[in-house]
Amino acid sequence: MQTIKYLKSKLGYGIGAIGLDLSYGMFYSFLAKYLTDVLGLSASFLLILTPIARLWDGINDPMMGTIVDNTHTKMGKYRPWILRGSILNAIVLVFLFSNPFKFSGAALMAYVAVMYIGWGMTNTLADIPYWSMVPSFTSDPQERNLVSTLARTFSGLGQGIVSIIAPIVMTAVSVTTAMGEDGQMTKVHDSRSYFICAIVCACALIFFSSVSVATTKETVQTQSAEKFSFKRTFEIIKSNDQLLVFMLFAMISNAGWYLTSGVATYYFDVVAGDPNKQSMFSTSQAVGSVVGMLLLPFLTKIMSKRKAYQTSLILCTLGYTGMAIGAFTEMAIVMNICYCIGAIGMSSMFIAQTIFLADVVDYGEVKMGFRAESITFSMKGFLQKMAYTLQTIILFVSLGVSKYDGSLHNANPESAKLAITIMLTVIPPVLFFISLIIFTKKFKLHGEFMDNVTKIVTENRAKREAAAAE
């Protein structure tokens, strides 16, 4: 019976990641094309909007982390926020992929700006407490690995559902056609397509988050943080040198992944000339993700976490290099196979990052004398948004310079097609390689040093529990 409860709790926690990543997938993979092609917004406006949103995230994310740390309810400190954030994020997602008030011009830009920033804020409400729960399950590093792996497995499932099924569904429900280079009329994704997919993802987000909240329980009690203070938050981030290193190498590698997912919709519409082909491409990624989730536990049995992470990044780099060869030689099968290889590395990389962040929290406790779980984990969401910002800067600058026109689809000029292909297959492996160098040279939470950190944290928790019992 105890085993059943244990599995129910861990699986229940992981299921919540499906809903979160359905929302992520719609935002990171399809929003850019919706804004440029359907709403007709200019790349210059989007280049301004994204950094402004990140400036606010820099304030909002750590603030939310502190609020979570100081939450005390019968449900715990994390689960109430996961549920509230998911419901609000689902509502904003639907409005973001629609224009119910038929705005145009400046009014449309203002509406999109509000919904864009609103999505980031509501996502923070759910995402920070969700990933902050990892240390609350157990202080055992092996147990953390299991919980993180399960969550990332379901996270990959959510991403896979969006990237594989969404292009097919959007084509099926579309009522708009366009003429391609071959003179044939084909369906293209229109406002109806994006709206219907957003509604489905929003409903799924609420459902899976509710299941997660209902089946999980926080078992490791942690100290409350101090009341929110910008000065204090800045000091925490500044004092934890390994958090800063983590944010840098994770942001750069994540930007490579986001660039692929964001540019793929452009590539298969503009270069390949068939949006449905994205589903096969994404299926290769999904298969690779499953293998990658199984790969990391295997790698950590035969080598250190450090070497396992380095191996993951090397696989990413090699896979994407092969992808570039397949793209420029117009060999789709080579692209798909190599994307699968790259996805194996990406999947194990993401799981390892979650594990490393839990280690960063422990390191912060030893160095500063107190825990700052949610503030530290809020940086995970923030670095993901910063990675997305880097992706959008590369994307919108390239589209503008290459004379991309969303109304032309695969009749775009060769300069646009070349820029899209380079963004999809050439820039990401460069980013992975840079991330590998930074990680290897600057991240020190491994080996004997990390063993000592874990020992001190375990002793501190034992003392707190003994004091509470008295």
Distance between the termini: 31 Å
CATH class: Mainly Alpha
Order of helices and strands: HHHHHHEEHHHHHHHHHH
Reported CATH architecture = Up-down Bundle
Number of strands: 2
Describe the strand arrangement of the main beta sheet, using strand numbers: 1-2
* Rg computed from alpha carbons, rounded to a whole number of angstroms: 22 Å
Main sheet record: 2 strands, antiparallel
Mean pLDDT: 86
Category from helices, strands and their pairing: mainly alpha
How many distinct folded domains?
1
Show unreliable segments: none
Morphology call: globular
CATH topology: Growth Hormone, Chain: A
By CATH, the superfamily comes out as: MFS general substrate transporter like domains
Strand content: under 5%
**Percentage of residues assigned to helices:** over 70%
Count of helical segments?
Answer: 16
Task: Tell me what the structure shows.
The protein has 470 residues and is mainly α. It has one domain: Growth Hormone, Chain: A (Up-down Bundle). It has helices spanning 2-38, 43-69, 79-96, 105-132, 134-137, 141-173, 191-215, 230-239, 241-271, 277-302, 305-328, 332-368, 373-401, 414-425, 427-442, 447-469; strands spanning 176-179, 185-188. It has a two-stranded antiparallel ribbon with strand order 1-2. β1 (176-179) and β2 (185-188) form a beta hairpin. α3 (79-96) runs antiparallel to α7 (191-215), α6 runs antiparallel to α10 and α11 packs antiparallel against α12 (332-368). The longest helix has 37 residues, at 2-38. It is globular and about 80 Å long. The two termini are 31 Å apart. The model has no long low-confidence stretch (mean pLDDT 86).
